[in-house]
């Protein structure tokens, strides 16, 4: 069970990126649909648990050290090439978004130049990736409980200081900008985007575990925990929709209302999530091309990190708009391929 919990914690830590922790993703994909956002949260929980289990088990089954083997296994020779290229692009793109996001957070919260903030995260990411996979998993998993505690504090405050009725909150929520036309598509897009980005590391984590049941349990637990956190943040934003409407970082706004110290703790959580995501994405991207025990691995890590920093200078908002929108819809192809692979696996005799 300890190994399953470790996989679950790393899975959540990877998926819960800056957009989730800031509340902006949850606001656009769930809260903006009012009551129906709760249904979307529940659906997302079930899908995350299913896809988390399937990917971790496939990684364990094939004992892979890169996502490439599993992707070609589920997609075949031709579709596998397309999925492989898409995931590899997503990995680098999302890591770059995290570097740019760190720069924006340092500038907004502490008045530090965004370029310096980005460099700090790039250096931390490179140093972390020079460690082995076990240490990386431990570091990523360790930040998850911290974020959960901060979210629970903000949720408790929000519920006790709610100034609008649930009906009024629903109407206000429906006026917020949405990332989709309805709650069902919103939930599916959110899961699609995150699975596309998190599949690679989840497969690699599964590949490091010989027991398929342990790996699958880790994926399920991670999916459920992720869903619970989505639900908690969704409820938090819903009951304080009158306060956070139009705010770029809703949870940070609520944290600052409680106390400046809580605001700083939330800012640290945001940076921690960016760090988590950057580490996971860059590791998965690099091992796609060079094995972790290869003599040139460390050199490639540094080279890729510097390239990521240069790309991050485009800007956080621009990158989010271009990368996230692309990943959401194209990720459906991966979800369908995983579903087919799971169905075929069930039909095969034990």
UniProtKB/TrEMBL annotation:
The chain crosses the membrane at residues 33-58, 78-102, 114-132, 139-160, 180-208, 220-241, 261-284, 296-317, 323-343. The keyword Membrane applies. The keyword Chloroplast does not apply. Signal peptide: none annotated. It comes from the Bacteria. PANTHER family: CONSERVED MEMBRANE PROTEIN, MEMBRANE PROTEIN. This is Membrane protein YkvI. It comes from Chryseomicrobium palamuruense. The lineage of its organism: Bacteria, Bacillati, Bacillota, Bacilli, Bacillales.
């Amino acid at each position: 069970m300890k190994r399953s919990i470790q996989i679950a914690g790393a899975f959540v830590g990877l998926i819960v990126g800056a957009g989730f922790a800031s509340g902006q993703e949850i606001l656009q994909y769930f809260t903006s649909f009012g009551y129906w956002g709760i249904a979307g949260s529940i659906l997302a929980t079930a899908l995350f648990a299913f896809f988390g289990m399937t990917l971790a088990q496939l990684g364990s089954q094939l004992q892979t050290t890169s996502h490439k083997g599993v992707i070609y296994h589920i997609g075949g020779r031709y579709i596998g090439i397309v999925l492989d290229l898409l995931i590899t692009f997503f990995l680098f793109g999302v890591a770059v978004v995290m570097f740019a996001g760190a720069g924006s957070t340092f500038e907004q919260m502490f008045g530090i130049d965004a370029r310096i903030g980005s460099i700090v995260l790039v250096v931390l990411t490179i140093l972390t990736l020079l460690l082995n996979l076990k240490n990386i998993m431990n570091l990523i998993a360790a930040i998850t409980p911290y974020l959960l505690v901060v979210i629970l504090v903000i949720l408790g405050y929000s519920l006790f200081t709610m100034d609008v009725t649930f009906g009024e909150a629903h109407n206000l929520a429906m006026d917020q900008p949405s990332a989709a036309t309805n709650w069902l598509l919103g939930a599916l897009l959110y899961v699609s985007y995150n699975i596309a980005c998190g599949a690679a590391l989840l497969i690699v984590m599964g590949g490091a575990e010989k027991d398929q049941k342990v790996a699958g349990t880790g994926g399920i637990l991670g999916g459920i925990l992720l869903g619970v956190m989505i639900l908690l943040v969704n409820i938090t934003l819903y009951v304080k929709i009158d306060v956070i409407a139009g705010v770029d970082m809703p949870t940070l706004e609520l944290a600052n209302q409680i106390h400046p110290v809580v605001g700083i703790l939330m800012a640290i959580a945001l940076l921690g999530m960016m760090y988590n995501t950057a580490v996971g994405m860059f590791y998965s991207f690099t091992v796609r091309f060079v094995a972790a025990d290869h003599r040139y691995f460390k050199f490639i890590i540094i080279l890729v990190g510097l390239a990521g920093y240069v790309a991050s200078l485009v800007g956080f908002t621009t990158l989010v708009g271009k990368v996230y929108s692309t990943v959401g819809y194209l990720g459906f192809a991966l979800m369908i391929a995983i579903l087919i692979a799971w169905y075929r696996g069930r039909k095969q005799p034990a």
